[in-house]
Amino acid sequence: MINMINNRIKSFIFQSYLIYLLLFIVILFIFGVIIFCQFGVSIFLNASLNSSRYLLSAMAQSLAAILAIVLGFSFVALQYSAKFWSPRVLDLFLKSKVFWWLLIIYGFSILYDLVLLRMLTGKTVAALVMWINFSVILTVISFLFLFYYAYETIDQLKPERIIQWIVKHKTEDVESFKRDTILPVADILNQALRANDPHTLKVGLEALERLNIDRIGSNIDSKDKLEIAKYTTGTISRLTDIAISENDESAIIDITDSLGKIGLNVIGSRRNELSEDEIALFKSDSEVGIPNKTDNNDKIADEIKEVLSNVGKRVIEREWEKATKSILDVRGKLLIKSYEERVPRLSDGVFIIANDFSRLSKEEKLFSMRYFMEAMRNIVTELIKKDIYFDDLQYNVTVGNIFEKSLEVIDEDNCYRMDQIIGYIVDLGLEAVKKDHNLKEDVKKHFKELATPKKCLDVLIFNIGNRGYRTASQSKKLETIWICSCLKEVGIYCALEGLDRPTSRIFSFLEGIEKNYGVGFLGRFEGSNANRETNEMLEVTENIITIIEELGNRSIEKRLGKSSRDAFASLIEIGMRNDNTNLKKRICETLKHMYLKLENKAIFKSVIDAFEKRQGHELDKFTEFKEFCPDLMEV
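Below the sequence we write its predicted structure tokens.
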């Protein structure tokens, strides 16, 4: 950001100096004209024939020498630019108005001086005084024009100006368009990559994008569109080889982003190939897709997606984080656009994304798995948000495959890598809950699959539990209930497997989520004088009690001491916080049923003893709660 501001300041300062210089030259020129007009006649009336001839001869020779030097340097610069950027620079220079104006002005001035020199004699010198004055003015004008010529020439030889000129003079013929427009721009981009010139690269890519998009949206034949688009995308894709060889990650991002924009436009332009009746049917019936008559557009999109797939593998090999994320993001946008335009054949790209991940090595999977899962999260959540129909099974299988392949390369030392992946899947599930989408149930199965290897259980429970804290503090009822159901799925598996410590952690999260929901609920509705006994609050609490009861019974059946103890403690904590009489009675009944199943009664006794050791307000709340369960508390 600071560099950008400094560049703008420098540019502004340069432009300011240029303005002051031009203003000074103009003032100097006007001043000189006034002097010549006022005093020129008297000066030359006394001038001799020899001095007049010497003046005209000197001006003609000086102008000729200046012109030769300027043209020499111009052609050297032109040759260098043509060699470094593109041979089309020669056409640009020859068609430049400034170049021809320079030749005209200097040629006329020199010729004018030579003609006057030929006309000068002893008899005509006095009569030609005004013409000689005009010759001096012409010389001054010619000299001043050099400043404008130099500025324009330097500006014209900038690569972005060359690109703009090439694009401006494009032709309609397909072969000429490829040869005289796309290819020269590609040559400039090749050199820009090797010279580490990101500005020129962006200008050139934007030019190719506009050219391609304009052609796609034009009325030319569909086959011609395909040929031009394939040539353009092929040209852009070949730039990735140079960018990778130059280790230029930012260039890869720019190139693939450019390909993505072309692909999005291609998919969106398929309707241009349809009749009005077909478009009307497409809009009215959500099940009707675009007919196969637009296959040429599909071929372009397929080629772009294949290029992105190949480049993605190469950047993953180099562990380029930003480029990997960018490419998967572009692929996701193309996939979503395919669904929006109801192009089933293109939407199969989700399987290609999963297959690309499956083919990676262990190290590459470890590096890229969070980016693949993030891409899947973005794709699915966007489809759900836009109410776009897609095959639940297809995406459920894809997400499951990435989960499965990730688990294969994960060991206990790098379980932390699963944290973001789990977070992305939780995001997906929460979005499905908002829209009541079927995927909300499928996501729970993924969590159970993740729990099965047992090696990353702590990361799984911690991630889901913390998200539950967040949804609860924001009083999101449906999302909070769903999070608790996910904890239940994981907890049941842990209890059945005899995993005491992970199961006990789930009870802590459930009790904490119930507490957070109450605090968040009261904070949210405090201005409305809402009380804690609203139906919404009770629904969340009762749901959590039901889950704790089920997990508690499983823990008791499996004789999990710590989990059984935490189940009792969590229910008592919830009972102490709630003032609803019916809710307290329900908790007492639940405790009683669980107690009756408990073989080791000392576990329950240890829980009661721990509560009775509390002090102050906490002890008063526990004493109050005991009044609802007198029989149970006396055992």
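The chain has 28 helices and no strands.
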